[in-house]
Amino acid sequence: MILTVLLLMTQVAVQDPRLERLDPETRSLVVSVVDSARAAGLPSEPLIQRALEGVTKGAQGPRIVAAVRRLATDLGTARGALGSGATAPELEAGVAALRAGAGPQVLTQLREARRPPLTMALAVLADLVTSGVPVDSASAIVLAFAPTARDADLVEFRRAVERDISLGAPPGAAASVRALNTGIRSTTDAAVPPGQPPRPPSRP
Amino acid sequence: MLDAGISYVEYDGFLPSGAASIAPSVRWDHPRGRGFVSARGTYLRFESGNRSLDFSARGSFFVPLARRWRGELGGGVGASDYASIARFSHGIVDARIHLMDQSRGGWLATSVGRSSFGDGPRPVAVIAMGVWLLGNDASIFASIDRSFVGDTAYSDLRSSARVQRGGIQFDGTLGARVFSTGAGQGVYGEASALVPLGRSTALIVAAGRYPTDVITGSIAGRYVSAGFRLGKLGFSRPARPQQPQAVIPYSSGGAAGSGSPAGARLEIRTRGGDEPVQFTLYAPGAVAIEISGDFTDWQPIQLQRSATSRDAWEGSFRIARGIHRINVRRDGGAWMAPAGTTRSADDFGGEVGVFLLP
């Protein structure tokens, strides 16, 4: 009995005070998931943030717990694909890519093709797919960029695609055309430096 | 046969450009109509000096007519190269069953194969059906198909008509791409006229818009072209300017992205380093704007109305690089993903805006 009380006190002591916004039952379950993730070497902050997001949106406790569990599982999958050395931002970006539809093997290929950090490459991959670029196309493009493109090149590429899409271009075509214009041909020399005006579309 | 001409083309994602093309083609037909083999090459040179090479070949074998049924086995291969940058290739085999009588008919078809862009071959599968009606000086075709190329799927509804008047052959096509996942959608159409100038010479003029062909890798575009055809004159379609490069699938516009029904558009400005990130939210008519995200620990924060615009609301936050999630709420309403972020489903039955802070 005393031991149980001590354990509970210890848990409360180490649990994140932000989780006080959760009701006690939900908080207990979320803390359990967070602790398990932490013990497995996974980052806890994304899990806490997901729980807080649920609270702000008025989600029921079971739904919050399910969301946190799902995220913990996805973080584990991302780490399996990206390796044990992956950082928390890389894992978060990896989860975004996985949820967008990229397979774990794409993450692994990216890890093998590019020096860390992979956060931006993974984020761009996720963003392209979420923007409507077919996942195999987005994967092929990002993997082609990966060995030599700078993060700034990837970000500019993604912005250019987004701009084209907002102007009415089909996402897949926009990504492919921009890749050929700025990346696949020469992964860095055609890229627009950060802060510079975007390059206008070119003639074929 | 040889087609040579000039075109004014505007491919999706490119500026308009003039181009010159030359396209030789050959065709052999079995004397008793049991099959054919054809091949075509196209050399296209753009104003920029870039060039596109395209080659395709196709053949079909027809089994003898059994009552009103006839079978067809065929296949085709093709490859293209744009400026030695992008290469595309495909190989398809297909089978058709035709039901026909003297002036009308229909068919069912299925195709399988591979389509490759660079090192990434993808499986291709197509099912299609169509009908046709022939008159003395006119013919009408209509078809519907469903294509699967890798993770892309789409359907095309097509109709075409051919009319001959005063020795001139007019062709028109009208189509629509629908039920598309990653292959775009919308209406397209082309029109052309073939004007005989002699026994083996004709003038061809054509214009229109066509969709991306995911299997062969041609990019959607619009064009106007004029040229000459030398050689045997037939009913083959006038040359369409070839794509500037191979392309992986065409995809639909209006996917989750910058558009939003939220009535609020977010602009994010960074100065780099440890400087706070400046958020400006444009929400015409709003009385109050709140923002919430992983950078606020999902605590709602009310933005301040801009000193320069009643429709703009501002706030600044210290945010780490990477992917972030955000929602906005106007006038105490529902949490929404603002335009200017990538809209995604959250885990709670709603939506969340995702943005990337470089």
Structural class of chain A: mainly alpha
Oligomer: heterodimer
End-to-end Cα distance of chain B, whole Å, is 55 Å
Q: What is the count of helical runs of chain B?
A: 0
Can you walk me through this structure?
The complex is a heterodimer of chains A (204) and B (358). By secondary structure, chain A is mainly α. Chain A folds into 2 domains: 1-84, no CATH class; 87-204, no CATH class. Helices cover 68% and strands 0% of the residues of chain A. Chain A has 10 helices and no strands. The model of chain A is unreliable at 5-13 and 183-200 (pLDDT under 50). Chain B has 358 residues and is mostly beta strands. In chain B, 0% of the residues lie in helices and 62% in strands.
List the helices and strands and how they pair.
The complex is a heterodimer of chains A (204) and B (358).
Chain A: H1 2-14, H2 24-39, H3 45-56, H4 61-82, H5 88-100, H6 104-113, H7 119-130, H8 135-145, H9 151-166, H10 171-183
Helix pairs in contact in A: 2-4, 3-4, 4-5, 4-6, 5-7, 7-8, 7-9, 8-10, 9-10
Chain B: E1 2-11, E2 17-29, E3 35-46, E4 51-62, E5 69-82, E6 86-100, E7 104-117, E8 120-134, E9 138-149, E10 152-165, E11 168-181, E12 186-196, E13 201-210, E14 221-230, E15 265-269, E16 277-282, E17 289-293, E18 301-302, E19 304-305, E20 312-317, E21 322-330, E22 342-345, E23 351-357
Antiparallel strand pairs in B: 1-2, 1-14, 2-3, 3-4, 4-5, 5-6, 6-7, 7-8, 8-9, 9-10, 10-11, 11-12, 12-13, 13-14, 15-16, 16-20, 17-18, 17-21, 19-20, 21-23, 22-23
